[in-house]
Description:
The structure is a homodimer. The first copy, chain A, is an all-alpha fold. Chain A has helices at about 1-30, 50-60, 70-75, 120-130, 140-145, 150-160, 170-180, 190-195, 200-215, 250-255, 285-300, 305-315; strands spanning about 90, 95, 230, 265. The first copy, chain A, has a two-stranded antiparallel ribbon with strand order 1-2. A two-stranded antiparallel ribbon of chain A has the order 3-4. In chain A, a hairpin with a 3-residue loop joins β1 and β2 (about 95). The longest helix of chain A is centred in the N-terminal third of the chain and has 29 residues, at about 1-30. The model of chain A is unreliable at about 1-15 (pLDDT under 50).
Amino acid sequence: MRSPILFLVLSSALSAPVAADALRDAATETFKPLPSTIPALKENTVTPEKIALGKALFFDPRLSASGVFSCYSCHNLTTGGDDNMETSVGHGWQKGPRNAPTALNAVLNEAQFWDGRADDLAAQAKGPVQAGVEMANTPDNVVATLKSLPDYVTWFGASFPEAADPVSFDNMAKAIEAFEATLLTPAPFDAYLNGDDNALTAEAKAGLQLFMDKGCSSCHSGVNVGGHGYYPFGLIEKPGSEVLPEGDKGRFAVTETADDEYVFRAAPLRNIALTAPYFHSGKVWDLSVAVEIMAESQLGEELKPEETAQIVAFLDSLTGTMPEVTLPVLPAETAGTPRPTTMVE
Amino acid sequence: MRSPILFLVLSSALSAPVAADALRDAATETFKPLPSTIPALKENTVTPEKIALGKALFFDPRLSASGVFSCYSCHNLTTGGDDNMETSVGHGWQKGPRNAPTALNAVLNEAQFWDGRADDLAAQAKGPVQAGVEMANTPDNVVATLKSLPDYVTWFGASFPEAADPVSFDNMAKAIEAFEATLLTPAPFDAYLNGDDNALTAEAKAGLQLFMDKGCSSCHSGVNVGGHGYYPFGLIEKPGSEVLPEGDKGRFAVTETADDEYVFRAAPLRNIALTAPYFHSGKVWDLSVAVEIMAESQLGEELKPEETAQIVAFLDSLTGTMPEVTLPVLPAETAGTPRPTTMVE
């Protein structure tokens, strides 16, 4: 009488991996694990010298007119690569128009900013430096600052050995892009995609299944679980104006096409549990609430509480191991270094 | 005929170390090399757990009401432990009243702040967190923030194992003090004091000699080449009101003693070449000019240009090796974490 029972146990033991593999197979078609090496950049060879230069620039508050803000200020690498504010505070205590996205894994996004108006991180890096509400600087003043610091001149020379005039605003942006390309955060979900069944809890696996079945992964797919493709916020049902302020028409400002009103890039979801508050407006602090709003506005779905919890468990599995970043030592000002100006024009 | 020449050569070879030793002997009586270990703190045992907690707190912008500023914002460890501004920019873009001093080696100062109003770094750390023009927070809100983050609760427990209620404003300050106690920057001058003749250039040695002969070291002495003792700024001749603004009466605000008008703590001079602009007013960007102003106002001395250059060469030898600081990974907000407020009251 014992053999049938033994058979049943064996059968279920055997069938579990099959089911797990089916889920992994579906996930593998939809997502992609993080690469184990620094991604190649378009027209920007990554070298150790360029990474080191880019790190120095990323941390240097002298890229801002006031000397108060560096890239790190809003893309804080201690707190998930963002600043955990609704919208960032910038020059003169002005508030930025949209929530600061994380710099972590951003190199893998198809385009940058909430409206995708920058093709890559090199193009992106030039934006905040010049934005009046952010760092409020000018390319000329940045270059004058960098050229006044002999170490930077050396570092730019080593990073761009073939350039006639290595210290330039474009090369600043390329070096920052090279550093940011190192900011990858492998997560339990990557281990799962790579074949480790134990990397995800049962709840996270159920959440992954739901994430695909309900249609979340129609937009949030690929290596960054989002970060590519543009979709109207409120495809099925527009969220309230608190979450989707009427004044910000998203990608419409880039394309000036009526179809692009309130269209945004699908947010990349790696480390999403670390980067509250949510949405371009930064108005939602609770990840469960953000999931519910997405389900309703984009899919017309009202999630059961346990479904929301499962999807959140899956999203938690996207929280990765932070890169180890040692602070750079920046060159000291010289007599020729432009002085910080905290004046607001 | 060759022996007398040989004798002369030998004699000068022998006499050089004697002269160098005389300078070192005098220097050793006046200054002290950095310790090779973390200094003991008053009523604050330093443990690895406490250092790690203190580092997290030092970098955490949630210690400020706005979520914009951390200790690191003004005590930037990439730029000499200060912010390289005349006076810091704080909550609501307000400007602080005095130049931010470096956090590097600050543990070795006899008292903290320009007017010495805090006995130690634990007392100091509580100041900016609460100052309306700096981080504008309250102890209650800080403790509520920290208690809302389970990792912090664990870290405080491990750092203060005997405390009944480990997460407190006082313990926050003690942990920050423990981290700051690790921020020591051994410099060529230390190597010289420790016996390495080649650690200082001939110009720096001449500057060291002048620094003692002219009387600079009457105030700027000890392990931090300053950082203890209080002296009127303008002992012999008051500098202009641009450099010494009339509204800031220095230590008078602490002691309310007429003798303490315009009295300040002698600035610690380690890494001074990295921490322009100078003086409590932050009005002087050039170290040579600062040296000249000091010589005139405190000593009634007009330095020759080569003397200034020699003293600056000595001061350059106080620029140390920066501590290697790896960014901490901070806990993510929870539902209970007080939200940042960028409102200015």
